[in-house]
Amino acid sequence: MFVLIGCRKADFAPCSDHTSLQHAFDFPIGVAYEPAYALSDSSYRVISHYHFDQWTPENVMKWGAISFQPETYQWTEADAFVSTALQAGKKLHGHTLIWYRQEPDWLPFYQADARGWEQLLRSHIRTVMGRYRGMFRAWDVVNEAFLADGRLRPCIWLDKLGPEYLFIAYEEAAKTDPQALLFYNDFGMEDNPAKLRAVLRWVDQLRARGIRIDGIGLQMHIQLYYPDAARMGKTFFDIADHQLLLHLSELDIAVGDQLAKGNGSLSELWQKQANRYQTVVSMYSSLPRKSQYGITLWGVSDRYSWLRTADQPQESPLLWDDEYQPKPAFCALISN
Ligand code: G3I
Known about the structure:
Strand order of the largest sheet: 1-2-3-4-5-6-8-9
Shape: globular
Distance between the termini: 22 Å
Bound molecules: ligand G3I
Largest sheet: 8 strands, parallel, barrel
CATH superfamily: Glycosidases
Number of strands: 9
Oligomer: single chain
Structural class: alpha/beta
Number of domains: 1
């Protein structure tokens, strides 16, 4: 049964970020990590090391970032990321092996028959996971394969191999690193029962064929009032009830839409954002322990958020502001 808890409506007084966020929870607290920022920005580096015990590579391990010619790989950045993380004692969450975006530029021009495409898919998974076998806690094997209506998203793999590509991907991943947990990662399922149902049906099909999948990543790029909290909570429990781990894999909470509508000053919206973060984390905390894989924030400071654009220059969905001051959302989570 799902019980909505943690909706305390309070103002969060400024707090210091001397206490590490990772120690405030019984499950890992992760962050999307971008080595380029760590190199040029010491505050980014300090916070990502001090507050987070699990790192997801935000971009440097996507296929398009590691392969510039067919079947050849450029490992410099990915290797450096992995070794920095392991030296710092971080858990590693792999992101992502198969995604219809950030694919190599050469991929659409690759020439092969169906068997050749299958070999390419398998070889990519084997090459990347195999290089880091035993080092990653888990991988997002496939990212965003389903559309909002539950059909499979058109992509090169669906085109070349049909729906079978999804089965091939998880089969190869399980074979390559038997210790790593295997996730399917997507957005919008927290507010879309049709999409969730389609994904869970496909999980059943994988399992019926004896192919392993361990968990679902809900990206959770959400807003202050969307989606509805009870609906999100129900999704968390539906996934746990399906004997799957749940990863809130890319959490951020946008305020830009409310700001644009004039529904409060930035500081008022940040208080609401703090309550919203607290609600999400409380709902997640109320899951059975065995279902909690962890929560990952999609960035450290607002200044580098993927949501900060020319159209939304004040968008600020994360826990630290542009000057690395902890926001009310950080204070809410540390006092959870
Ligand atoms: O690395 C190049 C750099 O050389 C170049 O000078 C610069 C100029 O624009 O672009 C740089 O690449 C950018 C890359 O991030 C690294 O910063 C790309 O343009 C930019 O498109 C890319 O955006 C990333 C996006 O995925 C790509 O689709 C975001 O940082 C990243 O946060 C975002 O993450 C995704 C998850 O992987 C999957 N779920 C959705 C989430 C948000 O879109």
